[in-house]
Amino acid sequence: MSKNIALITGVTGQDGSYLSEFLLAKGYEVHGIIRRSSVDFRERIAHLEGTPNFHLHYADMGDSMSLVKLVGKVQPTEIYNLAAQSHVQVSFDAPEFTADVDAVGVLRILEAVRTNHLEKTCKIYQASTSELYGKVEEVPQNEKTPFHPYSPYAVAKLYGYWIIKEYREAYDMFCCSGILFNHESERRGETFVTRKITLAAARIAQGKQDCLYLGNLDSLRDWGYAKDYVECMWLILQHDKPEDFVIATGVQHTVREFATLAFHYAGIDLRWEGEGVNEKGIISNISNPSNASNLKVGDVVVAVSEAFYRPTDVVNLWGDPTKAKNELGWNPQTTSFEQLVQIMVKHDMEKVAADHVASVMRTNLAEYLEKGIVK
Ligand code: NAP
Ligand code: GDD
To answer: Ligand 1: does its nearest atom lie under 6 Å from the Cβ of 32?
Structure first.
């Protein structure tokens, strides 16, 4: 039997780290692309380094030659193209870079496969996105819903979606898009709204932060657990024909609901007062007081800042995962919304507590060194 060899772009990201674990457990040889950085951002995959079937290589989505050489060297049977400038708000500040990586980068991967004559043996998964629906034209959204991208990020990802479809039809390649709705985890980047909330709830509960500033609290998202979603990426490539799939839970919540639940799991109940930029999240009950915090009922712990409003915002994402359920046998309800928020808050409560202990130890050590107590 021929060996399964996966090449993952974006291996250091949230999804790349879970997908690596998933494929290694299935016996794959896994190769990941990393890029040079002045500080080490490999913490999500640090635990996998040294695993015999796990290999990292330097390359960049903006560098065609590096991709052509790497695909030729690795000879992958499956490529998972997860690399992207993935932050929607940042795409308004860096639209050209976003287009280069998220749009032309997909083309570079496809051409790297063709240049190495692997188009009949290498399947390609493209990390497409619910942001394609943008200024939504219907709810819930499925594979037939029209696209209306509403940010430089979404416009770049739309090119990725269409070039994948074009190469599938023009060259008979097995390449597919997973149209994934938002998926989160304890490994989520800290500036995405869910992680920003769970970290702030943990810090506020432990007296390390006073207030959390957010943008549009009414925005609706269909939030799932990233660990469940990487299974779908794999299932899409194991399907008997190359097709695109919507991956979502089928359940929608507002940013306000996410924040209310996250603070609740951190031991703080909130009530909301005011509207728009004047809305506030106010403590109505404290169920788990920390010695480190001086919190009291009536304190404002969430406020709105216009700095987090976007020039155009996508406000009504709600996915219909029926096709993935019926054709891939995937269960969209493996982890509920409540479980997801609980997992993230539990993780961040422990992280904030551990960061505090580490900082006290560093301060003590500095003092002991200064006093000559330790050498
Ligand atoms: P993420 O945590 O932001 O990870 C992005 C990855 O892309 C990182 O490994 C990053 O490397 C890499 N990357 C960025 N620019 C690169 C370049 N020029 N060359 C090589 N690598 C580069 O994103 P994620 O949440 O795991 O999402 C994975 C993919 O799914 C992305 O394409 C995203 O757009 C898409 N997606 C995500 C969601 C979601 O809710 N998470 C939903 C739909 C679609 P560094 O670590 O070096 O920065
Ligand atoms: N980031 C952020 N920060 N978003 C906020 C904030 C805030 O302080 N306050 C409100 N929001 C709103 C945003 O305006 C948006 O409507 C919603 O919360 C979700 O924002 P993000 O968590 O940044 O995610 P996203 O939906 O824009 O993009 C993510 O999901 C896409 C799939 O739909 C990213 O992972 C994309 O890469 C992915 O394609």
So the answer is: no
